[in-house]
Amino acid sequence: MLRLVLLLAVILATGATQAGDPLSDALRAMEAGRHAQAAQMLLPLANAGNTLAQYRLGMLYYQGDGVPEDEKQAVFWWKKAAVQGHVESMFQLGSAYLFGVQAARTVVDPDREAASWYFQAASAGHAEAQYHLGLLFLAGKGVIESHSEAARWMKKAATQGHVGAQRALSSIGK
User: Fold this and answer.
1) Max Cα separation, the chain?
2) What pLDDT, on a 0 to 100 scale, did the predictor assign at position 11?
3) Which PANTHER family match (predicted)?
4) How far is CA 9 from CA 2, 18, 78, 145, 161, in A?
5) Which of 5, 15, 64, 69 is spaced 20 to 30 Å from 35 by Cα?
């Protein structure tokens, strides 16, 4: 009996009885370049509502890593994560509508859609989204042209160390 208790203690201490965390396993597969395996592992997690799995699966589709390149599928997964508050997915959506081809065709005004997603990510403190939103205000793309709004968002990004925003601020004189 004592041997059984000791054996059980050793097994528990080494974690040998614990199954790996499915999300961690999927992320390790991605890091190891096993993208197709990662996609298979992420899919049930994404379907179950895991925002990080949804975001990562979206990235695999966007880049065509382990799955066919498919911007629409990337947007599908990023939207699922973004509506749950996943900030990086909000940023990726903004970029997909602004720079993508397939995503832009799905909405009436892709610039406005991009600005909306950038605004949500920027409001949550995402420096790159703040910078991109500032650029949209400078150009009047999807938003009204406003140097003061551009400067406001650029300052937020620059405060976080965003070099592009720091340069942009010096060129717009704010």
Assistant:
1) 78
2) 42
3) ERAD-ASSOCIATED E3 UBIQUITIN-PROTEIN LIGASE COMPONENT HRD3 (PTHR11102:SF160), SEL-1-LIKE PROTEIN (PTHR11102)
4) 10, 13, 43, 66, 49
5) 15
Spatial CB neighbours of 103, under 8 Å, sequence gap ≥ 6: 71, 72, 75, 93, 96, 97, 110
Could you report the per-residue pLDDT of 68-95, keeping only the tens digit for each?
A: 999 999 999 999 999 999 999 999 999 9
Query: First vs last Cα of the chain: how many Å apart?
Result: 76
Whether the Cβ atoms of residue 83 and residue 113 lie closer than 8 Å to each other: no
Cβ-based burial of 56 (10 A; exposed 0-12, middle 13-18, buried ≥19): buried
**DSSP state letter for 21:** P
Please tell me the pTM assigned to this model.
0.86
Which ranges constitute the DSSP H helices of 35-109?
35-47, 51-63, 71-82, 87-99
**CA 29 to chain centroid:** 18
Helix (H, G, I), strand (E, B) or coil at 91: helix
Q: Assign domain 87-174 to a CATH class.
A: mainly alpha
d(CA 75, CA 78): 5
- Domain spans, the chain: 23-84, 87-174
- Quote the CA–CA distance of 131 and 118 in Å, as a whole number: 9
